[in-house]
Specification:
Length: 223
């Protein structure tokens, strides 16, 4: 009884220790199954990266889904890549986009990088809260054309560069990862088939009564 209890406790401890990693791997395999081509996954990542740099807080995931559907790309990959911009990174990234697009549009004459980053974020405070996201949403769209349009121009330029740089490495890594998974899957199926064949074969051949009688008669004649 104590041995069974110890075995069950060991299994529970193992599940709790690596449970999060195992669950993450399971969900990752569901989101990116083997039949999804590396091109579709790479295209989804490229689309998500492009949308991530656009100053479209509140609409990013919806926009990425629509574009991924239009180009037949992986939608989970597009949604995951959008989160490059999040409540922590959106202030510096969008401020950088503004200063990249500033030479191409009439811009606000007196604003620094840190001031614009703080303005986008909403003046500091806690990062991952609903109020922070809605505050950034309000600040982003109330800046006026002098700030928003240069930010949009710079975001398009940064998004195009990020999508181009993200496509080819993602395609290469995904191709190699899927090849490894296919080899493991084939090896696993081959091992199961060998075990099932061994189990299906009888361990001994039963001796029939006729064979016993014939062997007895041969021994009697020899005697």
């Amino acid at each position: 009884m104590s041995g069974n209890h110890h075995h069950s406790m060991t299994q529970a401890t193992g599940r709790s220790g690596g449970g999060y990693l195992w669950e993450y791997q399971r969900r990752l395999r569901q989101a990116f199954p083997l039949h999804t081509s590396p091109r579709r996954i790479a295209l989804g990542v490229s689309i998500g990266l492009f949308v991530a740099f656009l100053p479209t807080i509140g609409f990013q995931m919806g926009l990425a889904l629509v574009i991924a559907w239009m180009f037949n790309a992986s939608r989970p990959a597009a949604i995951a890549s959008v989160w490059v911009t999040n409540p922590i990174t959106m202030g510096p990234l969008y401020a950088m986009a503004y200063f990249i697009g500033r030479p191409f549009w009439y811009a606000h004459p007196e604003i620094s990088f840190s001031e614009l980053s703080t303005t986008i974020h909403g003046g500091g405070g806690s990062f991952f809260t609903v109020s922070t996201v809605f505050g950034a949403f309000h600040n982003m769209y109330s800046m006026g054309s002098g700030l928003y349009v240069p930010m949009l121009i710079g975001g398009i330029a940064m998004g195009l560069m990020a999508s181009f740089l993200g496509y080819f490495p993602t395609k290469s890594i995904t191709t190699q990862y899927q090849q490894i998974r296919r080899r493991k899957s084939r090896h696993h199926r081959r091992g199961h088939s060998v075990i099932s064949q061994r189990n299906s074969q009888p361990r001994f051949q039963p001796v029939s009564q006729d064979h016993r009688r014939s062997s007895r008669s041969r021994r009697r004649r020899a005697a």
